[in-house]
């Protein structure tokens, strides 16, 4: 299937408006990414971004590679740029990199992205929980408790089994706990 995708991308390039060629190059980079050739994909994503700075799909692809390589600050900036340009990207696309940023204690980068994500998906318990985790990491327990409370109201059966893992103080956890 990969070769078929490569052939389709290359045939689509013929006669394509020059302003859209970056989409072909981006698609080819994703083929390499999914084939596991992340070094080549990284080079391709970087080339696309250098020619088309607002190539939000390539920014996201490069960010995923950078996250895997431990370059969290640059990955966070790329993800933020990507989501600022195209905030309606799928929620599943944002979750994995945000979790990586939080798990690696890059809370400011995660929070910046989550501010956009929360505007796009205001009724997502997942986004609220991730935002709460990032705020906890930043030492903002009351803000975190507010996010966890909203998540508990949106999806109590989702939050109840993991609530104790949030790490809130007894005082801060009272509101979200009562919402369960």
Helix content: over 70%
Helical stretch count?
11
Outline? elongated
Quote the distance from N terminus to C terminus. Answer: 47 Å
Main beta-sheet annotation: none
Q: How many beta-strand elements?
A: 0
Q: Which secondary-structure class do the elements indicate?
A: mainly alpha
How much of the polypeptide forms β-strand, as a percent range? Answer: under 5%
- Please state the CA-atom Rg, rounded to the nearest Å: 19 Å
Summary?
With 180 residues, the chain is an all-alpha fold. Helix content is 76%, strand content 0%. Helix 2 (21-35) packs antiparallel against helix 3, helix 3 runs antiparallel to helix 4 (56-68) and helix 8 runs antiparallel to helix 9 (141-154).
Keywords:
elongated, 76% helix, single chain, mainly alpha, 180 residues
Describe this structure in words.
By secondary structure, this protein is an all-alpha fold. The chain contains eleven helices and no strands. It has helices spanning 2-13, 21-35, 38-51, 56-68, 72-85, 91-103, 107-120, 125-137, 141-154, 156-159, 170-179. Helix 4 (56-68) packs antiparallel against helix 5 (72-85). The longest helix is centred in the first third of the chain and has 15 residues, at 21-35. It is elongated and about 60 Å long. The termini are far apart.
Layout: helices, strands, pairs:
Blueprint: H1 2-13, H2 21-35, H3 38-51, H4 56-68, H5 72-85, H6 91-103, H7 107-120, H8 125-137, H9 141-154, H10 156-159, H11 170-179
